Batch of 2 targets.
Target 1
Amino acid sequence: TVNQSACEYTLSPAAISMSQSGGNTFALVRAGNGCGWTATADSSWITFPNGANGTGQGWLTLRASANGGDLRTGIVSVGSSSLQVNQSGTCQFSVSPGTVNVSGAGGQNSVQLTTGSACNWFASTLASWITINQGSTTGTGGRTVTFTVAPNTGTAARTGAIRVAGVLVTINQSGSGALTAPGGLRIIR
């Protein structure tokens, strides 16, 4: 009889990369003769089609389901040994329009993000005069992303940008125009 508490386990390799389409792959479980083992996965998209139990050294078949979202990582463990399963994702992002023209007065504007329902994203500003509105800085799936452009107090037009899910959106803002003095005189700089 083997004392199971004296058994040591090693999984090899330490990490496995899987394609977005999923499928089967194998890991080697090293254990002493007579040492029983059970594999577990921390993610439901990883299964063991040929069973999760074995005795001694043997091959463990892992199956990853197809991934319709972002890159994902799961952990498979046998005893105190573990391996990381990395699976590429299919997320693609499009943002419309790619350029937003804003008046000198500024205000709230929006763009439409299109992506898969399981795809995570974030939005950020690349100009101090543009603010991503609360509730539009991160999300999952497609949606309207809103942002606010501050008034342009200068006479010159300015260009800035926001980045939504890695897609650059150009923001063009017109100047406030020529300044008018009392009595209808026009000030030209």
Target 2
Amino acid sequence: MTYNILAINPGSTSTKIALFEDDKQVFIKTIRHTAEEIGKFPNISSQFSFRKELILSELKQAGIEIGKVHAIVGRGGLIKPIESGVYEVNPAMLHDLEVPVMGEHASNLGGLIAYHLARELGPEVKAFMQTAGSFRRKRTVSVQCIVGVNHPALFVGTDRYASAQMCNDQIEFFVFPACRLGMHAGYAFLIQGMENGNPGNIRMSADAGKR
């Protein structure tokens, strides 16, 4: 049986969606949002219906039947610290994303949209979040910013894990097979070492706490 998986990645100025048949990508689309469009909303959570309807519209235009999707996975938002990974969205996560207990970020919409789309499709469709934005670490956190500010130690690990894994697949590590370097480029540019999947020190190029 082939599983159809819809992936949703909300960002500050775009919403990326992709459809996979098992691990094969068969559709991808980046929906751009202008400053004027985003500026109409008082906060992130109020963008929920706006982005959800855009996603459904793009899928329809592409001839994709949403009813044939078996699972929906959203980019993990800022929830209370947990180990990184893939989780089925539950009421506790929804509460953290809606309140929001760890702060506002566009990625908070990922789990929310995935959950509500899945509920509309029926109980057999599952909703997941991939690599939550903030998670419990086994080591102490050290954050160094060029622009010095105090803000929570949040780790948005999805893209850094992906880039590190891609690099690991292409480069053979002879001496330190468990050590990797991950990078994140957004409003802030971060470089970070990882060991056995655990993030090390973070170097930030700008204040991500105010963005």
